Amino acid sequence: MQTPTKRTGTPSPAARHHVCWGYRRPAEFVAEAREFLAEGLAVGERVLYVAPGDQSFLEAQLRTDGRFDEGLRRGAVQVASVDATYTTGTVVDPAGQVELYATATAEALAAGFSGFRVAADATSLVRTPAQLDAFARYEHLVDRFMATQPMSAMCGYDLAELGGDAVAQLACMHPRAHEVATPFHLHGHTRDGSAAALEGELDMEARQLWPLALERADLRPTAGATVIDAAGLGFIDHRSLSALADYAGRRGTEVVLKTRLSTPARLVELLDLTGVRVERV
């Protein structure tokens, strides 16, 4: 059984609005998706439910207690079949997928809603290595969008089908995860406009996942420096710092790690790592 995500430091603002939800029975996700979407309806958002099945089946999953009936009639509640939208084996285009949700968010605002909220079971979109790689990149990219726009999302993944290691590759790109063991979160909900926020712990457990997440995040430098808001980081070992230096070298950038920890600066000096600068916050 997967253990809950390690949490360290102060949560990022609005981070609750993008959550990776691991489940072992589809009914578990459906029940949590209903609650997540009902919260959005209560604050005037348009909500979208995406899952396997046809439209009538998906609407029936929401029509269990009457909370969504009126919204379905007036367009505040929408459903979309993942089967009808994507053919088997589809590898999503990360930027294109974000653009679709950006358009949906703009349309919701234009229609008078306060925002846009999605609960999506994306299990069928990450079954192959190529699908998983592309979707992990999308998860980080859409998190950057959600950090500044009125969109929220719950992303469901079947742990029984995909396995914990695969889902952890997706969970680490979210600010929050449920029932998925990931040692860290590299996401877009920063406090200060940095390229990314980093929370959790970078230890032996993260030795394979951390370099992979860095590559997929494709962090954006500003004036030649890639700044990471690591105020929520509880621990980082020398291997993870070396991976950060390797990333800086490949990307031709200087990585600035903003952290409350005192040890990273000493390790960078002792290891003579180039391309990494540590700033205490």
Quick tags:
STAS domain-containing protein, 11 strands, Transcription Regulator spoIIAA, alpha/beta, STAS_dom, 281 residues, Rossmann fold, 5-stranded mixed sheet, 6-stranded parallel sheet, disordered N terminus, 41% helix, MEDS_domain, single chain
What would you say this structure looks like, in words?
This is STAS domain-containing protein. InterPro entries: MEDS_domain, STAS_dom. Residues 198-281 form the STAS domain. This protein is of the alpha/beta class and 281 residues long. The chain has 2 domains: 1-182, Rossmann fold; 190-281, STAS domain (Transcription Regulator spoIIAA), CATH 3.30.750. It is built from 11 helices and 11 strands. The protein has helices spanning 26-42, 55-62, 69-74, 82-85, 94-110, 129-148, 159-162, 164-171, 209-217, 238-251, 263-271, and strands spanning 18-23, 46-51, 77-81, 116-121, 151-158, 176-178, 184-187, 196-202, 225-236, 254-259, 276-280. The strands form 2 sheets. It has a 6-stranded parallel sheet, sandwiched between helices. The chain has a 5-stranded mixed sheet with strand order 7-8-9-10-11. Strand 9 (225-236), helix 10 and strand 10 form a beta-alpha-beta unit. The radius of gyration is 19 Å and the shape is elongated.
- Secondary structural class: alpha/beta
Largest sheet: 6 strands, parallel
What's the mean pLDDT score?
Answer: 92
The total beta strand count reads: 11
CATH homologous superfamily heading of the largest domain: P-loop containing nucleotide triphosphate hydrolases
Q: Uncertain regions: pLDDT < 50 for 5+ in a row?
A: 1-16
Give the fraction of residues assigned to helices.
40-55%
Order of helices and strands: EHEHHEHHEHEHHEEEHEHEHE
Shape: elongated
Q: Can you count the helices?
A: 11
What is the rounded distance between the termini? 36 Å
Radius of gyration: 19 Å
Domain STAS: 198-281
Protein name: STAS domain-containing protein
